[in-house]
Records
---
Amino acid sequence: MDITLKVNGTPHAVDVDPRMSLLDLLRERLGLIGAKKGCDHGQCGACTVLIDGRRANACLALAVAVDGSEVTTVEGLAKGDDLHPLQAAFIEHDAFQCGYCTPGQLCSAVAMLGEPGPSAVTDDLALDPELTPEEIRERMSGNLCRCGAYVNIVKAIAEAAP
Amino acid sequence: MNRVEGRVKVTGLATYAAEYPVEAVAYAYPVQSLVAKGRIVRVHDAEAREMPGVLAVLSCEDPPRLAEDADAELALFQSRDVAYRGQIVAAVVAGTYENARAAAAAVRVEYDPDDHDVALRSDHPGFYRPDVVNPDYPSDTVKGDVEAGLAGAAASVDVTYSTPVLHNNPMEPHAAVAVWDPEGRLLVYDSTQGASPDRDTIAQTFGLPREDVRVVSRHVGGGFGAKGSTRPHAVLAALAARAAGRPVKIALTRQQMFDVTGYRTPTIQRLRLGADAGGRLTAVEHVAYEQSSTLVEFAEQTATPARVMYATPALRTAHRLVRLDVATPSWMRAPGECPGMYALESAMDELACALGMDPVELRVVNDADAEPEGGLPFSSRNLVMCLREGARRFGWRHRDPEPGVRREGEWLVGTGVAASTYPARRRPARAFAFVRDGDYVVQVAAADIGTGARTALVRIAADALGVPPDQVHVELGDSDLPEAPVAGGSMGTASWGSAVVRACEELKRGDGKEGRADTTDEVGNDARLARHAFGAQFAEVRVSSVTGEVRVPRLLGVFAAGRIVDPQLARSQFIGGMTMGLGMALMEETLTDEEFGGFLRRDLAQYHVPACADVPHVEAVWLDEQDGELNPMGSKGIGEIGIVGTAAAIGNAVHHATGHRVRDLPLTPVKILSRF
């Protein structure tokens, strides 16, 4: 099936197998290996990308379902040689070890910082909560890190938050 | 100094095994056994072969040629016998992943099933004593008279603990891309913890000279032991590429990983400890019951930490193994030490309670001058300092030892302590250092699986050369580089670093252009000493009296691991190990399906690993430990000790909080609640 989509600002017109996920389209057809396949079932978050600005698991989206969308992957976060502040903070705080969950953590954090409203750990649901470490941990718990870099991930995000 | 590969990892440019751009690559998808034991009568693949894009179907119907001495877990399609549910019994190769997967689902395998036996239980009649346990320790040891020591003890414990099947679950699923060249040489991009040994095993499996095989693994998305030995996916990729006449990629699914990439054996462990009124041990007995497959004997060294930890006049350790219709267990972070120290350190806590003694003090009074089994002197041992420093930082002296009395609303609060230990070994390695464009290049077939090996070796080489780190470039993850051992057993940095230092020294001694090293003789001449890292872990827990949920607001680890090569990397390694230990304590468990064989909970929605919200505060610090009997860096391995003792510290804290002792990991709400 023919679809068109923009990935990191670049338009693509591709003929895809209707069974193909967005994740496999990125990795196997478009040569964008940044989004990682960790479970293919929406359970680990390693494939997190932004679809029309919202974070989503690329393994759970069929390629045909994102026809006409704008997708941002980890490859699209830096501006040329200038790293996104979150990328720089992740390096500075050693917020990764093997690096396999890192692209998903980064895309997830980029979107998370723009998500208003309370979470499961917010006390006063009427207020826009302050981004405490507890809020960060709650909002980033869809992205697993088996190396156990969470402590550093939270510090990096807290530092890079506007 | 930050990780040297940090930039490629945060920009998505680091290439893991499945991500190398290879022209005309095809895809393989395995078919797994649906019975736990039996014989394959017929593989019906006609329908699959007719499906779109299918290039080849592999199975025992037309066994592809492999060496006769191939490891039984790697000898794919060579036999009609099924040894466990989930074993790879066929595979489909197609031009696209979607077509390969669909055709694999159309392959029908007809079995003649046998009754299977998959459950580890303490009264199993099949237990036997293995000749050795991993890597080459005696299975059993006896010193003194344990029964007399127990009979004369002022206090004693006789307790049995059990730990479940655990899965490593690195974030990167095992993957490989295999490329044969026209001369019959094989290139494999593999997710492996050791390019050199992986190359050797693949060469052996295919009956090739090792010069004809190359393994490349520049970035590896975690391993924790699961990528420490060659796994079937790499062999399958090479078989499939040979059958299809094209390069072939395979990336296992998360579910397939549970079946064919190894796991930590479940254990049943009986501990008997006795002590005099002053807390000095009069006897220690540690017997571990474990499983292996019918294919390969894998005997985990679970009871070996008792041979190292505490002074005692009477000590017996033993391992008993039973061969079941299951996949072969394998290495998982701190094999032996991790489950063994869970049991020993939990039993020590129970003994402290029985004595009415502080658990830190109980460990201090039983500190050993030499290894309790065998009597080898320690190259360095600073367990007591770790305990004292940890107690100071944690605020231990304010602790009320009474269990089950601190309540904040629905939450019961408690604290616990446990010791950590891990051997500090090294193995021979080679390295090559040379000058290129005014900078220094160091080559060694090491692996960076997230440990920071690249960065640590840059620092080690820069120190040895006396130049700034930014003038040093380390090349690793390729079996064409100088031969090196696996990233495992916490001996990577010690082994590779020794060779790197010697190569750099050779470069400086010679013409200043290049230096080579092979540390075989140096390592072979190491003095006979007991070399171990030690540590102490402290946990605070909150246990809900309503739901049984356990939260861990605080974890502290204090370690004595020789000289720390890089503080930032070391801290990440320690806290990473402790975080995995928290998972072992509270949530990680794979179930064995007794009815059908194989495993249940084969994904990350059911096999829970710690998430960000589970880990509020993990702190790791270390002592400044000098030890001249290790290696040129003075370092002990740090990749595994972080997970050793964590589960015991948390379990002991749960007892302190609730007054109830749960001796069966993980400490899930249902087990806690049933005690209230």
Note: The radius of gyration of chain A is 16 Å.
---
Amino acid sequence: MPLTRDQVQHIATLARLKLADAELDDVVDKLSRIVDFVDQLQAARTDDVLPMAHPLNMSQRLRADEVTEPNERDRIQKNASRVEDGYYLVPRVIE
Amino acid sequence: MVQGTDALYTWSLTDLARGLKDGEFSSRELTESLLRRIDDHQQRLNAFITVTADAALQRADAADKARANGDESLLNGLPIVYKDLFCTKGVLTTCGSRILANFVSPYDATVVERISAAGAVMLGKTNMDEFAMGSSNETSYYGPVTNPWNKKLSPGGSSGGSAAAVAARIVPAATGTDTGGSIRQPAALTGTVGLKPTYGRVSRFGMVAFASSLDQAGVITRSAEDAALLLGVMAGYDKRDSTSVDHPVPDYVAGLSKPVKGLKIGIVRQHFDEGLAAGCEERVKAALAVLKEEGATLIEVDLPNIDLSVPTYYVVAPAECSSNLSRFDGVRFGHRADNPENLLDLYCRTRSEGFGAEVQRRIMTGTYVLSAGYYDAYYLKAQKVRQLISQDFKKAFENVDVIAGPTAPTTAFAIGEKTDDPITMYLNDIYTIGANLAGLPGISVPCGFADGLPVGLQLVGPHFAEETILACAHQYQQLTDWHAQGPEEFS
């Protein structure tokens, strides 16, 4: 079933993407084809099958909650476009 | 074969190691000659995003000095290039994307750290599909890589720059990553060897993440012997990657001598159906005949759910990608949109300006299959089918040592040929994706030519059976010389 333009706009908003009007039809078409393609999965019989959470079916290792890395804030913040006094700057969110 | 030191670019990593040890040439001479070679062919191939010439020469001098002082590190003074998603301290790491066009990594990936500690000299960072999402290298923000065998053709992807550089005899070895075939498919399409290890064999720390349950680092070389040499350096437990497995690392080079005689090779019926080009089928069957002649037994095995591997992948991989790529918000690193109206506008415009069309499609596919009302039907269902596919492999490996077949359904295709339909592009990885879903090691080895273009034979083994597939590939390369035949334009 093809996706609608509204559905695709909603997905884009959830994904924090802004789609231009000019590209919307192409995105709707291609996403619909992908969803249609993966719909083949519905035919598989998967009763009593455990979903795979890890490719080797292993469980996630945990570590002690200890500080292991030095603080390198200044060096790491060199990659940010806007910083001030060690803080990252974003548009105002509280008036 | 007589080798003059004027054509060092044709030497294997193993031969170069011997030459350096015997003092036939210095690392500086070698590095200078390969940097010239990169320069001469960059315009034709576009295989590199960054070339680190000055640092490489300094490093080469240091390697020569260390050698004079008795340093015999395994890769001392030998060249290496990294796919541009391995973080390299102080060097641009773009991941083929505009969103990371200005990102200078503050640290080294574990792979880089280990190869570097073994003495290797980094020459540069190779071009790739954006965020490793693509099978043709056409999604790179830095332009497509062209295939050394024919400039109108794609080298495959996503590790297309690495494959092209090795195939064109520019460097003997390159790192790559493989999420659904991104090492093995370009290796097949360029006539090189591509090894994807078992999930967890090589640390993913410092690799820009695409799909964390599928991504694995590996190598592209011209011989299985060189792949074994490099894997031995890269592999092993890393506490900084919680999915890295604490499993002993064998001497892969020593393991190469294991004979093919007595090896049980599984053949999957679905790998030889109508999707496979006739020329590729003929070459792969001829390769299997060579292994049979050498004493291997060919046994038909059944992977009943393998036809669902591509649709399974295109739910699981986009789901993980949509989550992983949510970190690119313009705030802490990478591209940031100008003059945002508010925070949401900053996020949305930064991401739409920074990501290319294919990456945006995958993020949206992933967002959709994880969203309320669709999670069970798509994501959960795909993880169940993934379990079935994995169990099929497990059952097959009760009877065989390796599974052999084609790496890719066709030889290299034209740039632009498959860009209109994402599904056509996705089906390129039909034979490689199964190994990623099940976390298995796989290797592609050159096995001849169809209409003048290279064809790859794929060998897949059980978990941590890198030794077995490397030995089989190496023995095959002792019996054939396909891997020694390079593109004439670059001879």
Note: The first strand of chain B starts at residue 48 and ends at 51.
